[in-house]
Amino acid sequence: MSWNTSDIPDQSGRRVVVTGANSGIGLEATRELARAGAYVVMACRSVARGEDAADDVRRTVPGADLDVRELDLADLDSVRAFAEGVEGEIDVLVNNAGVMAIPRSETADGFETQFGVNHLGHFALTGLLLDRVTDRVVTVSSRAHEGGEMDFDDLHGERDYARWEAYGQSKLSNLLFAYELDRRLDAAGSDVESLACHPGWAATELQSGAATNGAMELVMRAANAVVAQSAADGALPTLYAATAPEAEGGDYIGPGGLFDMRGAPEKQRSSARSRDRDAARRLWEYSEEATGVAFDLPEPEATA
Ligand SMILES: NC(=O)c1ccc[n+]([C@@H]2O[C@H](COP(=O)([O-])OP(=O)(O)OC[C@H]3O[C@@H](n4cnc5c(N)ncnc54)[C@H](OP(=O)(O)O)[C@@H]3O)[C@@H](O)[C@H]2O)c1
Question: Where does the record place the region Disordered (predicted)?
Answer without folding.
Answer: 253-280
